[in-house]
Amino acid sequence: MKNGTEEPESSCQEISVKKICKKGRNQAMRELLSVIVPCYNEGAVIERTAKAIVDTCTGRAFDFEIIFVNDGSKDDTLAFLKKLAGRSEK
Description:
The chain is α+β, with helices and mostly antiparallel strands and 90 residues long.
């Protein structure tokens, strides 16, 4: 804390939400798509963004992960990202 103002924990925080399908011995490995989403003061729309990506990628011929990068947001973006990460393996 400097001059009575709180500094962010880090200038850049990464929270990963992964959806990885487990494969049996006789099933071929699927490709993995990594979707990287930069976030700055996106608290109002981050859940809708995550849902749109999940809806678009689910049921495709690839596995996917969503990587949110919070770049020092001043709003509640980080809180929403932590909430998403807590329910990520769906």
